[in-house]
């Protein structure tokens, strides 16, 4: 068997056998198949796609290249929620404690962000001395007591994905839908769960800009998960404006805590409630959204979800009192206000532009080596549909270094589109694919 023949076969849109996928992936991981041949194969996949059978086996082969984490001593219904990434996406901060308060548990791998803003790890690392679980034993210890189980990615988990992704990054094949699906699902399947819920962001601030691409990616990921016996659901959610009011790290933690106190932004609440509803439904505890919403309201109102977040923070090395005292979080030195230049209604907030505005002041990373400034960020004072007067503050920029703050302000003002007519009925849940 030769790599060149496998490349040629995919080039001619022919289906690969399991043996051919074994030969290709094992050889690449071992270093016997060079980058230039794997690059040619990835480009062939980019143009010619993969069948359901090919992609499922390809994904399992990726998963099996490293450690698989199971939880024999964790007696919970385990929910693994994954987001494809967006601006202001603090869903995990809120979702984990709510699921835990409802008798379930999150069991997921979380990463650091690259691009607009920080990832889940960056957000929680805003809390002084907070450390994510680094081993299965640490994760089980924390999740067993709180129901919240978040672990940082390890080089031992799906090492083949890390190697292939680095190659995709320099060969213009990052945006291949089957390769995205395989990359995400190989990591989801490497950790035990009863249910995988994929929050697939769609729109200006998302990787998937169109509903058609998001639908196709969702379909492929759901297909992979369900075909190997792991119940998988994709929720397509709107990312045409940032999620919630805050973009950054410490300020997103604050917004998440406030949500658990019942002070929600409407869009964040809609996304979180939908995901919890789907989890409860597939666990068999509810049959309607209304039943689920009532259960969620109860654990918010009685403080149970907030208490579990506090315990999770303490068991992870942080000061749980942060849920009551935000001054324990890093604070920015200065605030710059952005004023509306016209009167009307907010008809759009370009999410990607807001994300870039946060990144240039230090809330995100342009390269993997960049350090995140947890204190900085942006707070939106107006959302889509809101009335705005000329000269009214529409956003505040929290910063420590003046170097790029004026550029950030210009980006924020450019991101706001003001029109004459009010936009009604903004949909945040676009579609559910099972």
Structure description:
This protein is of the alpha/beta class and 434 residues long. It has a six-stranded mixed β-sheet, with helices on both faces. It has helices spanning 3-11, 18-30, 35-48, 52-63, 91-101, 120-124, 136-146, 159-169, 177-188, 211-227, 250-260, 266-283, 289-301, 304-315, 351-360, 405-415, and strands spanning 77-83, 104-110, 148-152, 195-202, 231-238, 246-248, 334-339, 344-349, 377-380, 387-388, 393-399, 416-419, 429-433. Strand 4 (195-202), helix 10 (211-227) and strand 5 (231-238) form a beta-alpha-beta unit.
Topology record:
Elements: H1 3-11, H2 18-30, H3 35-48, H4 52-63, E1 77-83, H5 91-101, E2 104-110, H6 120-124, H7 136-146, E3 148-152, H8 159-169, H9 177-188, E4 195-202, H10 211-227, E5 231-238, E6 246-248, H11 250-260, H12 266-283, H13 289-301, H14 304-315, E7 334-339, E8 344-349, H15 351-360, E9 377-380, E10 387-388, E11 393-399, H16 405-415, E12 416-419, E13 429-433
Parallel strand pairs: 1-2, 1-4, 2-3, 4-5
Antiparallel strand pairs: 5-13, 6-9, 7-11, 8-10, 8-12, 9-11
């Amino acid at each position: 068997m030769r790599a060149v023949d496998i490349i040629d076969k995919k080039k001619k849109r022919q289906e690969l056998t399991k043996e051919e996928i074994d030969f290709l992936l094992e050889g690449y991981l071992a270093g016997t198949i060079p980058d230039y041949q794997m690059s040619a194969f990835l480009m062939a996949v980019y143009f010619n796609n993969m069948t359901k059978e090919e992609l499922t086996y390809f994904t399992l082969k990726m998963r099996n290249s490293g450690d698989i984490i199971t939880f024999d001593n964790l007696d919970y219904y385990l929910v693994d929620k994954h987001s494809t990434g967006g601006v202001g996406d603090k869903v995990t901060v809120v979702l984990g404690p709510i699921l835990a308060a409802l008798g379930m548990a999150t069991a997921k791998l979380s990463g650091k962000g690259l691009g607009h803003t920080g990832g889940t790890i960056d957000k929680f690392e805003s809390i002084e001395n907070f450390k994510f679980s680094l081993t299965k034993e640490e994760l089980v210890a924390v999740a067993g007591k709180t129901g919240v189980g978040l672990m940082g990615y390890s080089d031992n988990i799906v090492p083949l994905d890390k190697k292939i992704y680095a190659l995709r990054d320099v060969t213009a094949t990052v945006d291949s839908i089957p390769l995205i699906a395989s990359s995400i699902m190989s990591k989801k399947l490497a950790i035990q769960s009863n249910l995988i819920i994929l929050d697939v962001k769609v729109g200006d601030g998302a990787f998937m800009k169109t509903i058609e691409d998001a639908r196709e990616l969702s379909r492929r990921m759901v297909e992979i998960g369900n075909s190997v016996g792991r119940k998988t659901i994709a929720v397509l959610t709107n990312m045409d404006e940032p999620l919630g009011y805050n973009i950054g790290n410490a300020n997103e933690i604050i917004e998440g805590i406030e949500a658990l106190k019942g002070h929600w932004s409407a869009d964040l609440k809609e996304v979180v409630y939908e995901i919890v509803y789907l989890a409860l439904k597939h666990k068999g505890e509810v049959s309607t959204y209304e039943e689920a919403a009532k259960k969620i309201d109860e654990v918010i109102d009685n403080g149970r979800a907030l208490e579990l977040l506090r315990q999770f923070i303490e068991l992870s090395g942080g000061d749980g009192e942060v849920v009551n005292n935000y001054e324990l979080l890093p604070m920015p030195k200065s605030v710059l206000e952005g004023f509306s230049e016209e009167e009307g209604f907010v008809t759009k907030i370009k999410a990607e532009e807001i994300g870039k505005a946060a990144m240039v002041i230090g809330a995100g990373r342009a390269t993997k080596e960049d350090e995140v400034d947890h204190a900085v960020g942006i707070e939106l004072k107006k959302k889509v549909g809101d009335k705005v007067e000329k000269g009214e503050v529409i956003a505040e920029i929290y910063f420590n270094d003046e170097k790029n703050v004026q550029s950030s302000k210009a980006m924020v003002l450019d991101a706001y589109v003001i029109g004459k007519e009010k936009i009604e009925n903004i949909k945040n849940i676009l579609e559910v694919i099972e």
